[in-house]
Design a protein that fits this description.
Cas12f1-like_TNB, binds zinc ion, DNA binding, Transposase, 6 strands, two-stranded parallel ribbon, mainly alpha, elongated, 2 domains, single chain
Length: about 170
């Protein structure tokens, strides 16, 4: 990633170096030329980007295969939750979303191919806020609360575990 950033900077600097002002004075209009050097840098940049996206895709394939190989009867996934799920500091938000969608679609395809029921939970299904013991909904659950504590039955559970139990019981509403 660092190499990518450096290359991107190099390219924009080269463009900056070669700009020629056009139009009237103080107009801030410039002409940018693409030198051979820039072309070369852009080619290198493209190669790095392609290599990175191959690594990501490879990773998605490995992960989804591992999941499918455990032969579950059913897989339930949640729709994209931008706030809650994307927290990889090294990837831009756009790429994270793109990866997430790719992950879901490949998982769906592999599930179907292996005869595993694949369900996408409704985007508004409160998987985290519902108590998997008694069914009460805890409205004030914050994103930072890593442990779910039920206000009604006092059940205590890891947040993600609680959510996954709820999702495992998810039924599609007709
Ligand atoms: Zn409860």
């Amino acid at each position: 990633m660092r190499i990518l950033k450096r290359k991107q900077k190099q390219v924009s600097r080269k463009y900056e170096d070669g700009k020629i002002p056009i139009g009237k004075e103080g107009e801030n209009r410039y002409k940018f030329t693409k030198t051979n050097n820039i072309k070369k840098l852009e080619r290198e940049l493209k190669l790095i980007q392609r290599r990175l996206s191959n690594i990501r895709l490879n990773h998605i394939h490995q992960t989804t295969t591992t999941i499918v190989k455990t032969k579950p009867s059913r897989i339930v996934v949640e729709d994209l939750n931008v706030k809650g799920m994307l927290k990889n500091k090294h990837l831009s938000k756009a790429i994270q979303e793109q990866c997430f969608h790719k992950f879901i679609s490949i998982l769906e395809y592999k599930s179907k191919f292996n005869g595993i029921e694949f369900v996408k939970a409704d985007r508004f299904y409160p998987s985290s806020k519902t108590c998997s013991c008694c069914g009460v909904i805890k409205k004030d659950l914050k994103l930072k609360d890593r442990v779910f504590v039920c206000p009604s039955c006092n059940a205590r559970m890891d947040r993600d575990k609680n959510a996954s139990i709820n999702l495992s019981r998810y039924k599609k509403s007709a």
